[in-house]
């Protein structure tokens, strides 16, 4: 998931092709459906992103009672309105009526706390939970932001690598070369400095054991002279999420694919470039499919996020989206971290009966 930020944004307004009373307000590369005439191009408004959970008073004020997602009807989710994808909410809450939104945009002010908006945290199934222990020396996975929200992360023409984003659950493994020990955690637990105790019933431990990830991490540590190695992969298959890619995590070992590797040497942690990861792993561990390597073009990336999955080789179902990385790993001033972003397809976001476990 990405971080929650409720911000003031400058709008660009587009006609809605299928509704006379509606328009499309563009924020970054996102578009949200709004009432016609509510805003003009150049206006500033508050953008509330997907996966935001709103307080009842704000829901009532915006006229959205009973219309949002979740059992409490309080979660912002992508929807299609008269055929157009609407992602997030564009509004000017009454409590911010006296705020200079243009200045707030320039200051990158976050209104989430002021408006009582929090980030939705998906439920954790029993198979993904387990006993935990403190693990302050983990190499945790990071939140990846949406390219549509941060369209300037990559410069036009910059060399990038695009991989398929899989619908599973992120598994973070840290290997400690000094002690030869391995720690395994989920994305959510890792962000809290917690590791899962070794348990043959736990989904993450089953996955790394079945695919020999601890042994591969030990070899990576030796190859790079690393004191710590982080191997980050997606665990997937039937029994994990609703999109299974033809795999069944309930029988035998769950399916697994590496999407990133980090090594610590000389006290410095660095992420391996995509080509470096491919060379280092070879055929030892499965990796997420690479869909494109070449100059960055936002339109091309948005196109790649749609279509059918390529993991199974059989186009079994829709594609969740893509992840974009700089070909040579670098710092992004726009993100304040790695130059990496994701695009999630509209078809995936609006599918029926989907599961969203982190």
TrEMBL record:
<protein>
    <recommendedName>
        <fullName>RNA ligase domain-containing protein</fullName>
    </recommendedName>
</protein>
<dbReference type="InterPro" id="IPR012646">
    <property type="entry name" value="RNA_ligase_DRB0094"/>
</dbReference>
<feature type="domain" description="RNA ligase">
    <location>
        <begin position="158"/>
        <end position="344"/>
    </location>
</feature>
<dbReference type="InterPro" id="IPR021122">
    <property type="entry name" value="RNA_ligase_dom_REL/Rnl2"/>
</dbReference>
<dbReference type="Pfam" id="PF21189">
    <property type="entry name" value="PHA02142"/>
</dbReference>
<dbReference type="InterPro" id="IPR012340">
    <property type="entry name" value="NA-bd_OB-fold"/>
</dbReference>
<dbReference type="Pfam" id="PF09414">
    <property type="entry name" value="RNA_ligase"/>
</dbReference>
């Amino acid at each position: 998931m990405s971080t929650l930020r409720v911000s003031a944004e400058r709008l660009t307004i587009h006609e809605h092709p299928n509704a006379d009373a509606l328009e499309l307000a563009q924020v970054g590369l996102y578009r949200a459906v709004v009432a016609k005439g509510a805003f003009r191009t150049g206006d500033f408004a508050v953008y509330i992103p997907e996966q935001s959970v709103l307080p009842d008073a704000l829901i009532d004020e915006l006229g959205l009672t009973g219309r949002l997602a979740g059992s409490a009807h309080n979660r912002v989710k992508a929807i299609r309105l008269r055929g157009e994808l609407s992602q997030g909410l564009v509004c000017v809450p009454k409590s911010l009526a006296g705020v200079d939104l243009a200045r707030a945009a320039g200051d990158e002010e976050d209104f989430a706390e002021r408006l009582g908006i929090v980030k939705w945290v998906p439920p954790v199934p029993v198979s993904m939970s387990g006993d935990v222990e403190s693990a302050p020396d983990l190499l945790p996975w990071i939140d990846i932001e949406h390219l549509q929200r941060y369209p300037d992360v990559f410069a036009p023409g910059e060399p990038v690598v695009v991989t398929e984003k899989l619908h599973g659950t992120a598994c973070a493994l840290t290997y400690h070369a000094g002690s030869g020990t391995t720690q395994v955690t989920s994305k959510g637990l890792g962000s809290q400095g917690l590791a899962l105790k070794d348990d043959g019933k736990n989904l993450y431990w089953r996955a790394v054991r079945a695919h020999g990830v601890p042994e591969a991490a030990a070899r990576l540590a030796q190859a790079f002279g690393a004191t710590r190695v982080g191997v980050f992969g997606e665990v997937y298959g039937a029994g994990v999420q609703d999109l299974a890619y033809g795999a069944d995590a309930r029988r035998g070992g769950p399916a697994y694919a590496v999407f990133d590797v980090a090594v610590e040497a000389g006290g410095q942690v660095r992420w391996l470039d995509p080509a470096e990861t491919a060379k280092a792993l070879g055929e030892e561990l499965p990796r997420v499919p690479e869909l494109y390597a070449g100059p960055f073009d936002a339109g091309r990336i948005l196109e790649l996020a749609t279509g059918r999955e390529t993991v199974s080789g059989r186009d079994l179902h829709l594609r969740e989206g893509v992840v974009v990385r700089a070909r040579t790993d670098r710092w992004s001033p726009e993100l304040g971290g790695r130059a990496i972003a994701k695009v999630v397809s509209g078809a995936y976001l609006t599918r029926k009966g989907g599961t969203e476990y982190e």
